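User: Sequence recovery, please. Input:
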């Protein structure tokens, strides 16, 4: 086969196969001896015979603008994996975006698996647990001077009420200092 088939030529020029068959039947295409289509000569013939105002223009694909945050996220993901990140002004290539997408999907799957295995816990639940434990610890310390004052007063030979007041004063000072500690649980 010297030239293109009807289907190949239709794909090349963006028309249906039926339109190519009609053009072939009416002699608007240049054919080789074997019946295949001479693409270059047929394109020239079609260009001569076609009124430019009636020619269909191929629609240009509409590209949506990509938010800068998305490009930045792709760059961060690529950098984390030791890959080259796109320049800020130049955007990102399809290959870089696809690579970043695959890396993110792999990271999500790994995190989901770790959560299923019990290796990861819910942050809100952990914070709630830490808060509850700290409150229980505080309550134990607040009640400690009342329990320990009488025993310590007997050992030292002092009045139990005075001993309890001194212990409460020092325990409260220590709890106030601990209340100012703000752990960073990120």
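Assistant: Recovered sequence (186 residues):
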């Amino acid at each position: 086969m010297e030239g293109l088939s009807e289907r190949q030529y239709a794909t090349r020029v963006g028309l249906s196969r039926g339109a190519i068959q009609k053009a072939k039947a009416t002699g608007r295409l240049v054919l080789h001896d074997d019946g295949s289509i001479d693409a270059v000569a047929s394109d020239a013939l079609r260009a001569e015979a076609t009124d430019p105002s009636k020619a269909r223009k191929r629609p240009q694909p509409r590209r949506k603008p990509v938010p800068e945050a998305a490009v930045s996220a792709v760059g961060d993901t690529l950098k984390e994996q030791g890959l080259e990140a796109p320049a800020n002004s130049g955007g990102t290539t399809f290959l870089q975006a696809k690579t970043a997408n695959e890396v993110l999907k792999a990271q999500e799957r790994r995190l989901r698996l770790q959560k299923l295995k019990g290796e990861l816990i819910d942050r809100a639940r952990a914070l709630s647990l830490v808060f509850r434990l700290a409150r229980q610890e505080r309550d134990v310390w607040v009640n400690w001077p009342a329990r320990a004052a009488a025993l310590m007063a007997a050992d030292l030979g002092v009045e139990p009420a005075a001993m309890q007041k001194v212990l409460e004063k020092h325990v409260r000072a220590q709890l106030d200092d601990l209340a100012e500690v703000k752990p960073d649980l990120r």
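The helical segments are 6-13, 17-25, 39-49, 68-80, 94-117, 123-156, 160-179.
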